[in-house]
Automatic annotation (TrEMBL):
Pfam family, one: adh_short_C2
Entry keyword DNA repair: no
GO cellular component terms attached to this protein's record: cytoplasm
Biological source species: Cognatiyoonia sediminum
Family to which this protein belongs: Belongs to the short-chain dehydrogenases/reductases (SDR) family.
The keyword Magnesium belongs to this UniProt entry's keyword annotation: no
Gene3D superfamilies found in the cross-reference section: NAD(P)-binding Rossmann-like Domain
Transmembrane segments: none
Annotated ranges, domain Ketoreductase: 3-183
One MF term in the entry's GO annotations: acetoacetyl-CoA reductase activity
Name of the molecule in the record: 3-oxoacyl-[acyl-carrier-protein] reductase /acetoacetyl-CoA reductase
Record keywords: Oxidoreductase
BP-aspect Gene Ontology terms: monocarboxylic acid metabolic process; poly-hydroxybutyrate biosynthetic process
Amino acid sequence: MSRVALVTGGSRGIGAAISTALKEAGYTVAATYAGNDEKAAAFTAETGIKTYKWDVGNYEACAEGIAQVEADLGPVEILVNNAGITRDAPFHKMTPQQWKEVMDTNLSGVFNMTHPLWPGMRERKFGRVINISSINGQKGQFAQANYAAAKAGDIGFTKALAQEGARAGITVNVIAPGYINTEMMSTIPEKVMNEVILPQIPVGRLGEASEIARAVVFLASDEAGFVTGSTMSVNGGQYLA
Ligand SMILES: NC(=O)c1ccc[n+]([C@@H]2O[C@H](COP(=O)([O-])OP(=O)(O)OC[C@H]3O[C@@H](n4cnc5c(N)ncnc54)[C@H](OP(=O)(O)O)[C@@H]3O)[C@@H](O)[C@H]2O)c1
């Protein structure tokens, strides 16, 4: 039987590329999403990957949702914590709500999803936890005190949990993508893209979601058992951590 992989925010953007690549690599995949039913339905129709709706910021919802996925597909052995949001504002204008929403989804969401799955991974002596952070969690970014703090938190979480999982056959790693060619990027004016963003990227282009997905497929594999606690930068050379 193939291993079961659960991808949060796996119905669109980078997450959709991750879900699809894991399916192509032979995993049974479940993808979660927050509220965009239309995109999720279209994704399932196109790929055959089952989608589930819950808020990763809600611990009980995560525990219930995971129980449902496991009842449908079997024990989850690979968890990709990809769901993420931005609520950008310069700090003097940032509201407590903007801070909280980003923390709830991008940092607490990683705890809420990993914690219910951890005992099963420990019992089975196998697990892969792959967190999707960001270059901005490594270097900071103007108007992203909330996002950078949460994404840096994901890196600390990874390093601590990798030490706990090592003896139980569980690896915990984090990927820090740079600028990736997703819907979010298509809203940036061409002038800003060409004159501000691209000159910062030595490789001279944006990354593709499929390039993040390939890194995930590697870290998920049985062969990657010696790679744990690592931060993999996939950023075209923009920031060398
Ligand atoms: N795009 C980039 O250039 C870039 C760069 C560095 C890091 N990242 C990180 O990569 C990850 C994916 O980014 P993306 O650009 O692909 O994002 P995206 O296109 O906006 O998709 C986000 C996904 O996460 C889901 N989601 C959001 N909040 C959620 C919540 N509270 N509970 C459950 N699911 C939730 C969304 O569900 P709905 O469809 O229902 O809204 C959607 O499936 C994020 O963690 C992001 O921070 C992105």
